[in-house]
Design a protein that fits this description.
The structure holds 3 protein chains of 3 kinds. By secondary structure, chain A is an all-alpha fold. Chain A is built from 20 helices and no strands. In chain A, 63% of the residues lie in helices and 0% in strands. Chain C is 27% helix and 12% strand. Chain C is built from 6 helices and 5 strands. By secondary structure, chain C is an alpha+beta fold. The chains are: A mainly alpha, B alpha+beta, C alpha+beta. The interface between A and C is medium-sized, with 30 and 30 residues.
């Protein structure tokens, strides 16, 4: 009974988890290498180029120090073999728990993220598509969907066709067709801050604690513009389901074009969520020694990094799915439409591979952006970080949402929506920019000793005492 | 009352007969000098102390002599005016230094005197930066065999003749003299008569440059690395005041320290070289206990507890069978603490002072031409080869009202009535305090504790050996032959893991904390009337005379 | 701390931002152009990378580089050092240990029986070289100093002399301090080598 209702294949899921885990962790490893390479290239250096694979075969000698491809492996081995110092003053339970939470939540968010063309599961009952008859099971294929729209019982159709949960279509996600979709990603991603907060707090070290405090404040602040920017997507597509959103974009065009402002806000917010420069205040070395991971060493320290880079990958996939059209690439995917779906078909496999490659390529582009931005923008001060979130990004998010709602309600053709949204975004930016120019700036600082040296009458001036603070 | 004006500083010299150099010293002004030394006759040969001298007339006007005069040779009187900064005087000083440096090799980097060399100091303060000398320097050959303890670097000599006058006037043996003339003058000895008198090494201290060097200290250390403390020589009962020079807790040399109450300016070679025992590798480092199968090292706390237990066992039966021997090498404070410990258990415990090593007769200087002592005694090497006989005997007589001697102890050993004996040592290996037959007698004692520096016949027979600290490692007070009490400062930290004697006695007494000589000195001063002078705690630079003096 | 008088305080205002700067995006774009142009130039090989591939490519160090010490030899191949302790006195890290002894040679008085430099404790400041009156100690351009134990890094006299032989043979480090000679005492007696100028300087 239950298995009839829920399309769920235990074996397939286990295999998918295994593959995704391996792929993500490998990607994390190589993104650290990429990070170091990009840093080097931007700074006119060479970067790691010594660590390779010396396999002893003369014809494989080019692998020796081949772009430093052995570096992530060597780093991993080093982290595993290093002495694991646990200071005596830490709260041991949470100290051990923190890196696990950091990496666990980051990996958990990957569950709903698709990284290829996953077939869209039709809704059971949709008011927008006219009163369909409720069915006991999901339609799995387009044939089934068509049958459902016709009012046929899909159980009958399925008896003679391939079902959704059968192995005949490849689903590039661990948990495909989760209807709460990116809400799940945000919920789990928001938990990631627990890793940082617990790590900083359990270390019993004031630098660590300050780092984790900053992190919690930062993540809470940036959840809001992030949510606002994604609300626009929800308004436009009408679904939280990631496959559905990608599907919508395949049909109507990428959301980045419809909502450029929301896309920008989302991009900035994921920088902050990942604690990447220019928002890496929780771990800034200059002020906080190491921030929340000061007291960590060996693999526990590496786990924090693993979590951070996994987070980057997750959010990059999300960004690609939400705003950059997922697996869709004009002309390329259009050409693939003719290919029939179904597992045994070789053409279908090629088609899936190309779409997955497109998706991963978009993700890679965003990761590259992460790394280039790191060497472009300086780290914010904490007050700048906060005023950016609350004074600039919040109003922009609200304005963007209003624009999206308006365009959805009042403007019909897609190209008109595009033009309206572009103008609206530009105007919003200008509006907020002018408004922030009008706002009072930072208070002037006065040396404390100057205040002390003043006559008592001067200290009664409210302006001055306000300045002193 | 005579008042002298030095560089416009008025200084009252009383009725003393002083020369310009001394009068300027009183005023805090340095007149550079090489050949003049307070203990030697005046020759005014180095010409370094040239100053302008004049007289203040009763009407207030000052009449200066129109030339520079040697300050060491010019006595001052009431109204004498000395100008050391006068251009004529400074020019003369500069010229003198340039002259002295004509033949000086300037090999300061390899010269042992560098750092305490008056030629360096005065050249820096009063001399020229460069020389006009273009000719070749004289390089007379060195004379390393001038004496057993002294080596002569002939080329460094500036011919002040202090050493020559010392051997003639203080030692009286007159081994050194000046040969050749003028530019080629050299210090030398008569063939077959090396500089071997018992005061010979004093010429090294007297030499203002590095010409005469002590063979014992030669090339051992650079002087600026040395740490100097004021101490007292423990070689004989003269109790010469000395400077103790150490580096990294190793004693490198002893130098005489001027003390008009003790010995004057000098010290004898035996005392000067007597420190080598301190650096000996044979010294005990840990308490030893004799068991069935030979000796084995034990912990300090165990040793102290074991001694205390043994003493209380014997004194519990008959305190008269327990003996304490207070060596004349102990400081007053140590003797006081040990005697207090003995008395704290029972008033019948016997306390005696240790044997006093005595060698021949007191050796006085200067000698006459035949080697006989002259009548005007300038320095005495005592026959009594221990620093503190008088002090320790005072302490012993304070505690032991019926006087006993070391001989009484030996008799008691023979009679078998000494069951516990605590012997303190510290004697120098050159003059051992205990003879072998004494040691044999003492070996009959069932519980023999020996507190000593180095292995000896006595320590071989002891049940427990407690290591003793050397004089350079402990602070304390010594009372010399004349009753002069001088306190010393520890120049180095005791060997690793060692405890000073005073600390051991303090531990035996059960008193808490570290031993502080000054506090104990005050205790002694209050308790013992003849040592009342110590009640202030400090004995000052030159020491204080105690009532026990003759 | 005395209070600052108000007349001595110069008030500096934050510079006014223009609208473009306030919006921040154009300036970010400018920055990205710089970053990416460097990245592209490096990837296409159009800018010159200064990185030296060390083990294969040896760096050419300037002759005044301060690396491992050496003890110079005189013309007869003996150690030049006269054991004056000037280097150990000047050494701010206290890493030089010397034991002096009367020299076995007739033309000088003192030589180092032991001369040990703790290369791990050394900070390579070169003060020893400046302090040396006979130019016996010099710092070489050898920089890749390794050892398997702390004892390995205690360079004694023989090792320091072998550094001299090695560097002179390589030709990388000519003897560069040529101040002079100690004094007459360091020269053969009556050899006439000494002039007063060298002795006085």
């Amino acid at each position: 009974m239950l298995f009839d209702l829920i399309p769920f294949s235990f074996l397939v899921t286990i295999v998918t988890i295994g593959i995704v885990f391996g792929a993500v962790l490998t990607a994390v490893g190589y993104s650290t290498l990429l990070e170091r390479k990009v840093s080097a290239w931007v700074q006119d250096r060479v970067g790691p180029n010594r660590t390779g694979f010396d396999l002893g075969q003369p014809w494989l000698s080019f692998l020796k120090g081949f772009f430093g491809l052995g570096q992530p492996l060597a780093d991993g081995v080093k982290f595993l073999l290093k002495e694991d110092v646990v200071p005596g003053h830490v709260d041991r339970v949470f100290y051990f728990l923190a890196p696990m939470i950091a990496v666990g939540t980051a990996l958990l968010a990957m569950a709903v993220v698709s990284f290829g063309d996953t077939p869209v599961a039709p809704v059971l009952h949709s008011s927008s598509e006219g009163g369909l008859k409720a069915q006991r099971m999901f339609p799995a294929t387009k044939t089934e969907l068509a049958a459902m729209k016709n009012g046929t019982n899909i159980q009958e159709v399925r008896d003679g066709a391939k079902s959704y949960e059968s192995l005949t279509t490849i689903k590039f996600a661990i948990a495909p067709n989760v209807d709460i979709g990116f809400l799940f990603v945000f919920a789990v991603g928001g938990l990631a801050v627990y890793g940082i907060v617990l790590g900083g707090w359990s270390s019993n070290n004031k630098y660590s604690l300050l780092g984790s405090l900053r992190s919690s404040a930062q993540v809470i602040s940036y959840e809001i513009p992030m949510g606002l920017s994604v609300l626009g997507v929800l308004v436009m597509v009408g679904s939280l389901n990631l496959e559905r959103i990608v599907d919508w974009q395949a049909r109507h065009g990428w959301l980045v074009a419809y909502q450029p402002l929301a896309c920008l806000l989302f991009l900035i917010s994921i920088f902050a969520e990942c604690n990447r420069l220019p928002f890496d205040l929780p771990e800034c070395e200059q002020e906080l020694v190491g921030g929340y991971h000061t007291e960590y060493s060996s693999m526990k320290f590496a786990l924090f990094f693993l979590g951070e880079y996994t987070h980057m990958i997750t959010t990059s996939f999300l960004m690609a799915a939400l705003f950059l059209g997922g697996w869709n690439l004009p002309f390329v995917t259009d050409a693939l439409k003719a290919v029939p779906e179904g597992f045994p078909d070789f053409g279908y496999l090629i088609c899936c591979a190309v779409k997955a490659a497109i998706f991963c390529g978009k993700m890679g582009f965003i990761i590259g952006l992460f790394m280039v931005v790191r060497w472009t923008i300086l780290r914010f001060k904490f007050n700048q970080l906060m005023s950016l979130a609350w004074k600039a990004m919040m109003p922009l998010g609200v304005l963007s949402l209003v624009g999206v709602a308006a365009s959805r309600q009042f403007i019909e053709p897609d190209y008109a929506k595009l033009i309206f949204q572009f103008l609206w975004s530009f105007a919003s930016l200008l509006l907020v920019g002018v408004a922030s120019l009008m706002l009072p700036g930072e208070p002037q600082r006065v040396p404390v000793n100057l205040l002390r040296g003043r006559a008592p009458s001067a200290s009664s001036s409210p302006e001055l005492s306000a300045k002193a603070w | 009352m005579a008042t002298v004006l030095v560089n416009d500083i008025s200084v009252d010299i009383g009725d003393e007969k002083l020369n310009c150099v001394q009068a300027a010293q009183r005023a805090g002004v340095t007149i550079p000098h090489y050949c003049w030394h307070p203990a030697l006759s005046v020759v005014a040969s180095c010409r370094m102390c040239l100053v302008m001298v004049g007289e203040k007339k009763p009407d207030g006007s000052i009449a200066m002599q129109p030339k520079v005069v040697p300050g060491c040779q010019t006595p001052v009187k009431d109204g004498t005016v000395i100008q050391t900064m006068d251009p004529m005087a400074t020019t003369a000083q500069k010229a003198t230094l340039e002259n002295l440096l004509l033949n000086h090799p300037l090999d300061c980097p390899v010269c042992d005197k560098a750092g305490e060399c008056l030629l360096q100091d005065y050249s820096f303060k009063f001399g020229n930066a460069s020389s006009r000398m273009v000719d070749e320097k004289n390089t007379p050959p060195n004379k390393p065999d001038i004496g057993a303890n002294v080596s002569l670097f002939t080329d460094r000599c500036i011919m002040c003749s202090r050493c020559v006058r010392f051997t003639r006037e203080v030692a009286g043996t007159a081994e050194l003299h000046v040969v050749q003339r003028g530019n080629h003058s050299e210090i030398d000895i008569f063939p077959g008569h090396p500089l071997d008198n018992k005061l010979a090494t004093n010429v090294v201290d007297l030499c203002p440059v590095g010409a005469l060097a002590s063979k014992d200290f030669l090339y051992k250390q650079r002087v600026w690395n040395l740490k100097t403390v004021n101490s007292v020589c423990t070689g004989c009962s003269t109790g010469c005041s000395i400077h103790l020079d150490t580096n990294k807790d190793v004693v490198y040399r002893l130098r005489p320290r001027f003390n008009p109450r003790a010995q004057g300016h000098f010290m004898c070679d035996e005392g000067r070289l007597g420190y080598h025992q301190v650096n000996s590798s044979q010294r005990f480092r840990k308490p030893l206990e004799r068991g069935e199968s030979g000796t084995r090292p034990i912990e300090w706390s165990a040793a102290v507890a074991s001694v205390d237990r043994g003493f209380r066992q014997v004194s519990g039966v008959d305190p008269g069978n327990a003996w304490f021997v207070l060596s004349p090498f102990l400081t007053l404070e140590e003797a006081w603490l040990l005697a207090s410990y003995a008395r704290s258990v029972s008033p019948f415990v016997r306390i005696v002072s240790g044997p006093v090593p005595r060698v021949g007769e007191d050796d006085t200087y200067p000698k006459d031409r035949k080697g006989r002592p002259a009548s005007n005694i300038k320095f005495t090497i005592r026959a009594e080869k221990c620093p503190n006989r008088k002090g320790v005997e005072t302490i012993v007589s304070h505690f032991q009202k019926t006087p006993l001697s070391f001989g009484d102890l030996l008799q008691a050993c023979d009679a078998g009535s000494a069951h516990f004996v605590y012997v303190t040592g510290g004697y120098s290996s050159a003059h051992p305090g205990f003879r072998v037959d004494d040691a044999d007698k003492l070996s009959k004692v069932p519980n023999l504790i020996v507190h000593d520096l180095m292995p000896s016949a006595l320590t071989d027979r002891a049940n427990i050996v407690i290591p003793s600290a050397a004089f350079s490692e402990k602070e304390g007070t010594y009372v010399n032959h004349a009753g002069l009490a001088q306190s010393t400062v520890a120049g180095c930290v005791p060997l690793r893991g060692m405890r000073t004697d005073g600390q051991v006695f303090l531990d035996l007494l059960g008193r808490k904390g570290l031993v502080r000589a000054e506090e104990i000195r005050k205790e002694i001063g209050k308790a013992v009337s003849v040592l009342a002078a110590l009640a202030q705690g400090s004995t000052g630079e030159f020491g204080v005379f105690t009532g026990s003096g003759s | 701390m005395p209070a600052i008088a108000e007349k001595n305080v110069r008030w500096v205002k934050h510079p006014k931002l223009s609208l473009a700067e306030q919006i921040y995006l154009p300036t970010i774009a400018q920055g990205m152009v710089t970053t990416i142009s460097h990245l592209v130039k490096t990837l296409t090989g159009t800018n010159s990378i200064q990185t030296q591939q060390y083990p294969e490519q040896k760096p050419s160090l300037p002759p005044h580089y301060r690396g491992v010490h050496r003890l110079n030899r005189d013309e007869q191949g003996r150690v030049k050092c006269v054991s004056c302790y000037m280097c150990s006195t000047a050494c701010p890290a206290n890493c030089i240990d010397i034991v002096a002894a009367p020299s076995p040679w007739p033309d000088r008085e003192k030589y180092p029986e032991l001369f040990v430099i703790d290369e791990l404790r050394c900070i390579y400041c070169g003060m020893c070289e400046q302090a040396c009156p006979v130019d016996a100690i010099e710092l070489t351009t050898i920089f890749d100093l390794t050892g398997m134990s702390r004892e390995d890094m205690m360079f004694d006299k023989e090792k320091l002399l072998s550094v001299f032989d090695q560097t002179v043979a390589m030709g990388t480090d000519p003897v560069r301090t040529k101040g002079g000679r100690l004094s007459v005492a360091a020269e053969p007696a009556g050899s006439g080598l000494t002039t007063s100028s060298s002795a006085q300087s």
